């Protein structure tokens, strides 16, 4: 072999060694798989801070006014929070959503069981995630703080002491209905209480009444968020919601939504 042929072989061998070092060994034998789906670019969202909403959220209460709520004028607003003094519901309606709210049970403990720090957040005006002062306060488990009322207890009791601020982060998939009024797909609720998972994609069994078992009845694709008044001055602040369901081109008129009637 001539000297030039030998140096040519060495050059090729060197090139292989260099390339082998630059590319993972696996890729030499198994080319990368790609789905081929042309995904749209995820929108950029400013996530906000612990006390402010993400940039794509609808702010329902920023500490200054409750104009986004029917009945909000019944509540007292002071020092950046609002005091529960009557049932209120959002003027805007929502289906699938991510909801954030902060609440505090009265610092002065009065009453017991369901009579202590009771309120509730109603998804679509029908499905209650219970708000209660369940810090060292026994009641029936599927009615304590963080329960899906009369359907499912929270996985754990993550309550803070009376008077301390607490957070709910709720991810809700609304139920769907067929034309014959039967359930096409049930609703699902996930709840984080003070950052702790307490309801994990729970399948809703229907509405959450105090005096009747859960059942579904067909309703529109969207409904209000309601906050319950149960006689206790529960405080609220920093409420926002992200709409996870694009608005249909045309919505039929909504029938009246019932007043919250649970615990
Ligand atoms: Mg309640």
CATH-defined architecture = Sandwich
SSE succession: HHEEEEEEEEEEEEEEE
The CATH superfamily is Exo-inulinase, domain 1
The CATH top-level class label: Mainly Beta
Mean pLDDT: 90
The CATH topology name reads Jelly Rolls
Question: Can you tell me the overall shape?
Answer: globular
| Quaternary class | single chain
Which bin fits the share of residues in helices? under 10%
Helical segment count: 2
Termini, distance in Å?
94 Å
Write a structural description.
The protein is mainly β and about 260 residues long. It has one domain (about 60-245): Exo-inulinase, domain 1 (Jelly Rolls, Sandwich), CATH 2.60.120.560. It has helices at about 5-20, 25-30; strands spanning about 60, 70, 75-80, 80-85, 90, 95-105, 120-125, 125-130, 165-175, 175, 185, 190-195, 195-205, 225, 235-245. Strands 1, 3, 4, 6, 9, 12, 13 and 15 form an eight-stranded antiparallel β-sheet that branches. The protein has a five-stranded antiparallel β-sheet with strand order 2-5-14-7-8, with no helix packed on it. Strands 10-11 form a two-stranded antiparallel ribbon. The relative contact order is 0.20. The model is unreliable at about 15-20 (pLDDT under 50). The site of magnesium ion (MG) has 9 residues, from strand 7 and strand 8.
